[in-house]
Amino acid sequence: MVLHGHTDHVYSIAFTPNSRLLLSSSEDKTLRVWDVESGQCVRVIQNYAVALYDIAWSPDGCQLASAGSDLLVTIWDVVARTPPRVLRGHSWTVYGVAWSPDDRLLASCGRDDTVRLWDASTGACLRLLLDPDALDTFLYGIAWSPDGKFLASGSYQHGVQVWEVTTGTRCWAGREQHSGSVVSCGVQTGRAWPVASMMASCACGRPPTARCSQNCKSIGAC
Q1: Burial class of residue 2 in the structure, from the number of CB atoms within 10 Å of its CB (0-12 exposed, 13-18 middle, 19+ buried)
Q2: CA–CA dist 8, 71 (Å, integer)
Q3: 181 and 156 in contact (C-beta within 8 Å)?
Q4: Residue 177's closest CA among 204, 192, 199?
Q5: For 43, which of 33, 165, 198, 214 could close a Cys bridge (C-beta 3.0–4.6 Å)?
């Protein structure tokens, strides 16, 4: 089944916890909600002024978070349909967003080289995480461990980093396994923090989500 509707690159997709709906975000500045069984688009959230690079449903399925080129993390209440809440703090494009397993925290990462931890109910930034060995790296993917104790982030040419959430300590970094950009990562259930990641990079060496003047044709290119 192919779902048609977006008019530009689709950067992220996410199922609701009950697997009935699928959400997609795009360079065309829209979010689309799809009925999984029928393949029909049941809602379009539009009028954005920016590209949306990542989306994530809360574990209870009541809220979704989006990250984009406006430097913001936005939280939507899809049940009450109240106005979205905006989390400000990143100083450059936000590429990744993820909910903690207990719904209480939200993690985001971006081109400003930071991972931010937010209180999902108040919108307060609780912690700022920096890679002490690579302060100039773009951070793309972000993922929680199933127990909520660790965060994993993927980066541009600096591999994968794993953080201990309570202390904010970087406890592991895998820099040798990838030669390009790690744009997605996840933590395997039942393990401490082994990280599975997906790598993609432009032929010209630019970040894979950037617009490239050289018209790269490689997987993950602009």
Answers
A1: exposed
A2: 20
A3: yes
A4: 199
A5: 33
What is the DSSP secondary-structure string of 84-125?
PEEEE--SS-EEEEEE-TTSSEEEEEETTSEEEEEETTT--E
Residue 140 near residue 155 (C-beta atoms within 8 A): yes
Query: What is the CB neighbour count within 10 angstroms for residue 196?
Result: 13
User: Any idea which residue has 């997906």 for tokens?
Assistant: 198
- Cα-atom radius of gyration of the chain, to the nearest Å? 17
**Tokens at residue 65, please?**
């978070």
Angle subtended at Cα 63 by Cα 131 and Cα 38, rounded to the nearest 5 degrees: 115
Confirm whether pTM is higher than 0.90. Answer: no
Please report the pLDDT score of residue 211 as a whole number: 45
pLDDT of residue 186 exceeding 60: no
Q: So what's the pLDDT on residue 105?
A: 96
User: What does DSSP say about strands 41-45 and 31-35: parallel, antiparallel, or unpaired?
Assistant: antiparallel
3-state secondary structure of 156: strand
Classify the phi-psi angles of 157: left when phi > 0, otherwise alpha if psi is within -120 to 50, otherwise beta: left
